[in-house]
Amino acid sequence: MKNRMKDRIPASMALAALLVVFLAGAPLLRAQAPSRFLGTITAISGDMLTVKTDTQGDRQVQVPTTAVIKRIAPGQRDLSKAETIQYSDLASGDRVLVRLDPDAPGPTAQALQIVAVKQEEIALKQQKDREDWQMHGVGGLVKSVDAASGVIVLNSGSGATAKTITVRTTKTTMLKRYAPASVRFDTAQPAPLDAIHAGDQLRARGIKNPEGTEIAADEVVSGTFRNISGLVTSVDTAASTLTVKDLATKKQVTIHITPEAQMRRLPDMMARMLAARLKGTTPAAGGAGQGAGGGQGGGQWSGGGANRGQWGGQRGGPGGGDSQQMLSRAPAIQLADLKKGDAVMLVSTEGSSEVTGITLLAGVEPLLEAPEASQNLLSNWSMGSSAGAAEAAQ
């Protein structure tokens, strides 16, 4: 009997020791679990929210009546200025920061606090930021970086509109880098000046000189991307990919197209006029009179002709000197609209045989006759079309 007890005591002690270790580790495991997440509401059903998070995919969270729900203005971080709202005030499209209750019973995550930014307020903030970037921003490809002086030199524009821009930064300048596979400002992360390299795409916002050749930057966002010009060899809509033969490397590249990719097609007249301008064979028209004298298409582009409302706006055509705005007004297309043999130009993530497309432009056959200038054109447009779309909820 005593021998049996001797055999059991060590086993019992071992079990107790294991239980102590487990219980001691439980708080650590709980502490390591994510306590909050940031994202966009995609569905509301009863007291359950479905949120598309920025980093973890879709998350479902139960919102009990005890949860504190606050509404804050875009860009505001001081919760003392937040307004308390009801659960019924939340809607799909709202940006939310959800803090989870660590003591919630059961397997379903429960919200302890929700801080929301309303979708309509985000849209207004985005529009304001977009206009501010257009008015006070510059963009281009980095030519050089002097970290000691804080000076960045850009090559901006294409063809006859090409120019050099000096970007001056200080210790107070906000410096950010785009996240991989994205030119979304809201996902850009702080980064030092020495992270910027020659060949990067860069946008800066601040106080410009009258000529637009120098800017004292309050904010800079940059990234490293790849420019590809080539012919489509195949399209796989099921896999959301297309294959392009890169004219520069003569190699096949698989392009992954995500829902966030911008895809547009240039009308033939627009493509031919842009190509002529990039090659310097057509002078930039400054108004209706010059446009009318610039050829058959000139009056339509800048002289108030039939297409002016669709493409030109006030400064949308080649005569207005804003090629990036004109490209942004080209018709949007889907992957299924592309076919074998189409000429495309695109900005993508870095990679050799497989990349993710960020912006893609079809209908570019005339532009491929001036490939270097065309690549600069697309790079500037790629950055400019999204730099102002900063989501305010961080």
Question: Mind explaining what this structure looks like?
Answer:
The structure is a single chain. The longest helix is centred in the N-terminal third of the chain and has 31 residues, at 2-32. The chain has helices spanning 2-32, 119-136, 268-278, 288-293, 298-302, 308-312, 323-328, 371-384; strands at residues 36-45, 48-53, 58-62, 68-71, 83-84, 95-100, 111-117, 137-146, 151-156, 163-168, 174-177, 189-190, 201-208, 214-223, 226-236, 241-246, 252-265, 343-348, 354-362. The N and C termini lie far apart (68 Å). The chain is globular and about 70 Å long. The chain is an alpha+beta fold and 394 residues long.
- Count of DSSP H/I helices: 8
Global outline: globular
SS strand fraction: 25-35%
Main beta sheet strand tally, sense and closure: 7 strands, mixed
Distance between the termini: 68 Å
- Which strands sit side by side, in order, in the main sheet? 3-2-1-6-7-4-5
Low-confidence parts lasting 5 or more residues at pLDDT below 50? 1-32, 283-321, 384-394
How do the helices and strands follow one another from N- to C-terminus? HEEEEEEEHEEEEEEEEEEHHHHHEEH
**What do the pLDDT scores average to?**
77
Short synopsis of the structure:
The protein is of the alpha+beta class and 394 residues long.
List the helices and strands and how they pair.
Layout: H1 2-32, E1 36-45, E2 48-53, E3 58-62, E4 68-71, E5 83-84, E6 95-100, E7 111-117, H2 119-136, E8 137-146, E9 151-156, E10 163-168, E11 174-177, E12 189-190, E13 201-208, E14 214-223, E15 226-236, E16 241-246, E17 252-265, H3 268-278, H4 288-293, H5 298-302, H6 308-312, H7 323-328, E18 343-348, E19 354-362, H8 371-384
Parallel strand pairs: 4-7, 10-14, 11-14, 17-19
Antiparallel strand pairs: 1-2, 1-6, 2-3, 4-5, 6-7, 8-9, 8-13, 9-10, 11-12, 13-14, 15-16, 15-18, 16-17, 18-19
